[in-house]
Automatic annotation (TrEMBL):
May be an activator protein for the gylABX operon. It comes from Pseudonocardia hierapolitana. GO terms for molecular function: DNA binding; DNA-binding transcription factor activity. This is Glycerol operon regulatory protein. Residues 20-83 form the HTH iclR-type domain. GO terms for biological process: glycerol metabolic process; negative regulation of DNA-templated transcription. Keywords: DNA-binding, Glycerol metabolism, Transcription, Transcription regulation. SMART domains: HTH_ICLR (SM00346). Residues 84-266 form the IclR-ED domain. InterPro entries: GAF-like_dom_sf (IPR029016), HTH_MetabolicPath_Reg (IPR050707), Tscrpt_reg_IclR_C (IPR014757), Tscrpt_reg_IclR_N (IPR005471), WH-like_DNA-bd_sf (IPR036388), WH_DNA-bd_sf (IPR036390). The keyword Acetylation does not apply.
Length: 270
């Protein structure tokens, strides 16, 4: 299919930025599939969600399927994300120093704690999970590799927000803060108080603030600059990860964080 070209002037740049509309549409389809149900979405539903015609949607999906970016279920005629995306995402994860440094410890930590372990980095106003270690607990949660969540809604995000610069924190708290559960904290002063406590104690918590039934505890990971570049988090069901059991999780979390920091050349903690 021949795509149209949208030419717009780049802000603060005399050169023009050329955007290929068909590529934009293809990305829209991938994002719609990613946000959809696990068993995939059909052509009609994808067309409706993206605002594309069925013919355009069909042609784009054929192209994406040929490049293994989507998979088509022959029985249901629905589309899911393909393995090529996983392979590309794996290469991105491998290019991040902190992800490489942490990988050997994530599954080991999950086995030791019996809960899922998340490694997250800050991407603007969100935490993005770049890797994960899983225990055989049978517990499922929304957070998975590649997913992003707003910083104020979870332990990983609050840990990273606490170590952001003052100007960023001020701007973040000045904007409306979205709520996801009755426990989500959206009052700026309460969050500011929590951030100060996180900087003092060295860890952050989340008690069902992003997802009902899910609690988490996070510690920071520093690199050779001494700055906090990632959050290492244990996450599990509210019945197991509780305020009374924090020491049971903090001890192995902190030990693993120190090992990762050694690989990143972090200076000794003061």
């Amino acid at each position: 299919m021949k795509g149209t070209v949208d030419v717009t002037a780049g802000e603060g740049d005399a050169r023009s930025t050329r955007r290929v509309q068909s590529v934009d549409h293809a990305v829209d389809l991938l994002e719609a599939i990613a946000a959809g149900p696990a068993d995939g979405l059909g052509v009609s539903e994808l067309a409706r969600q993206t605002g594309l015609s069925k013919a355009t949607t069909h042609h784009l999906l054929i192209t994406l399927e040929s490049r293994r970016l989507v998979l088509r279920d022959a029985h249901s005629a629905t589309y899911r994300l393909g393995w090529a995306l996983h392979e590309l995402g794996t290469l991105v994860s491998q290019s991040v120093d902190v992800a490489r440094a942490a990988r050997p410890f994530l599954d080991e930590l999950a086995l030791e704690t019996g809960e899922s372990i998340l490694l997250g980095v800050r991407v603007d106003r969100t935490v993005q999970y770049v890797d994960r270690g899983d225990a055989r607990s049978g517990f499922t949660m929304q957070a998975t590799t590649g997913m992003r969540s707003l910083l104020h809604t979870n332990a990983s995000g609050k840990l990273l927000l606490a170590h952001a610069d003052d100007e960023f924190i001020k701007g973040y708290l000045a904007d409306p803060l979205e709520s996801f559960t009755p426990q989500t904290i959206t009052e700026p002063q309460r969050i500011a108080d929590q951030l100060a406590e996180i900087r003092d104690t060295g860890f952050a918590t989340c008690w069902q603030e992003r997802e009902r039934g899910l609690c988490s505890i996070a510690v920071g990971v520093r690199d050779f600059t001494g700055g906090t570049v990632a959050a290492l988090t244990v996450a599990g069901p509210a019945g197991r990860v509780t305020p009374d059991d924090m020491d049971r999780y903090l001890v192995p979390l902190r030990a693993a964080a120190r090992q990762i920091e050694n690989r990143l050349g972090a200076p000794a903690a003061g």
